[in-house]
Design a protein that fits this description.
single chain; about 140 residues; mainly alpha
């Protein structure tokens, strides 16, 4: 292989890596949007005292992401993939999110998720209490 062919191969590989890195970051941005929307929805439904199937689905989405994140040593599993594809820092959020948000995702959304869980625990507890006291009053 001559020098020009080697350059063409490297250029093609770099183009593929850049496209793959873009896809990883775009996927992560979409996943971020879905997960954070689920957390905000969970709080909304909790405040409205509406614990239902939709709030259970939102909880499952956020809890699934939390388990994946914690199971990977509190590092996004897409970070290693982004690094292997040539990202300088490996961060998959640095381009598609404001820097301050990317640095503080866990600090912002962790407490919000906990709040949503607490609101729904309150709702379930109230529902159980109402059922128990209703049964006593009828009996």
């Amino acid at each position: 292989m001559n020098h020009d062919e080697a350059v063409n191969v490297r250029t093609a590989a770099n183009g593929w890596r850049a496209a793959a890195l873009f896809a990883v970051k775009a996927f992560h941005s979409l996943a971020f949007w879905v997960i954070q929307t689920a957390i905000v929805y969970l709080i909304y439904k909790g405040v409205r005292r509406e614990t239902d199937l939709c709030s259970a689905i939102a909880t499952s989405i956020a809890a699934g992401e939390t388990l994946i994140y914690a199971g990977n040593g509190f590092r996004c599993p897409l970070t290693g993939l982004a690094e292997r594809l040539g990202a300088e820092r490996g961060s998959v959020t640095d381009i598609y999110l404001p820097d301050w948000l990317a640095r503080n995702i866990a600090n912002i959304y962790g407490p919000m998720f906990a709040l949503g869980l607490l609101l729904h625990a309150r709702n379930v507890r109230a529902r159980v209490w109402d059922q128990q006291t209703g049964a006593r009053n009828q009996g």
